[in-house]
User: Fold this.
Amino acid sequence: MSLIEIDNVTLHLGGRLVLDDVSMTVEPGEIVTIVGPNGSGKSTLMKVVIGALQPDSGAVIRKPGLRIGYVPQKLHIDPTLPLTVRRFLSLPKRVSNEAAHAALDDAGAGHLCMRQMTDLSGGQFQRVLLARALLSEPDLLILDEATQGLDQTGSADFYSQIERLRQNKGVAVLMVSHELHVVMSTSDRVICLNGHVCCHGAPEHVASAPEYRALFGTGTHGALALYRHDHSLDHCDHDHAQDHAHAHTHDHGQNHSQNQPQDKVTSA
Ligand SMILES: Nc1ncnc2c1ncn2[C@@H]1O[C@H](COP(=O)(O)OP(=O)(O)OP(=O)(O)O)[C@@H](O)[C@H]1O
Assistant:
């Protein structure tokens, strides 16, 4: 069974169509990355996956008992508040020293345990957020632009850590990233979102897909095009995109949109 199955999800926010018939799955142990221009619905899709937003129609099916660890883009900590990494990991729920050390080690942050949160560099801070997400021993890690603000080396190191985690623990990863060059080498599958799924598949397949090239250009530095792209939902050729319309499609013959999430969600 898939860890997550999104079937034909449509969602409006503020009267605007943000997710248009989106389908995708995440299988155990795989790394799936969502790419797409600003405002293309990536964060919204992540919120649907963790159950923070309910779709207008379509189904979100989580494997029963699924544990999700969520690594946010940023977390604001009051700079006047003395808070060590160790204490941070025990908020809001106390964790044992053993669990805290194990999670920090897995996140490559074992040496940071007694440091003040406010003294950490951007990369160190993200590793601590990763450690916090690992405390629940998740089956699936969700990273929403977790390396935003890090330099290239910092984010490459962070993604290497993610790959090691997948290798050592078999955790699946669903992430949103703007760093296409890193994403292309790290992911098993890439889903290109622009309100709807423009194209999807192995990174090499997506990189050469006309829909992807229309959004990001042809070079590995197409990431730069990301911020310049005019992202109307109609940008992709719908007839052509029809062949690629769904990252994964199942006909369950019923609307599950009212389903309550069955999983345990950990938010860091
Ligand atoms: N609560 C909301 N109410 C109304 N519109 C919203 C809301 N949240 C998001 N939107 C709109 O939905 C669209 C998709 O937003 P979303 O944050 O999912 O995009 P994104 O692909 O993650 O963008 P970015 O790359 O800039 O982070 C945007 O046009 C945004 O303005």
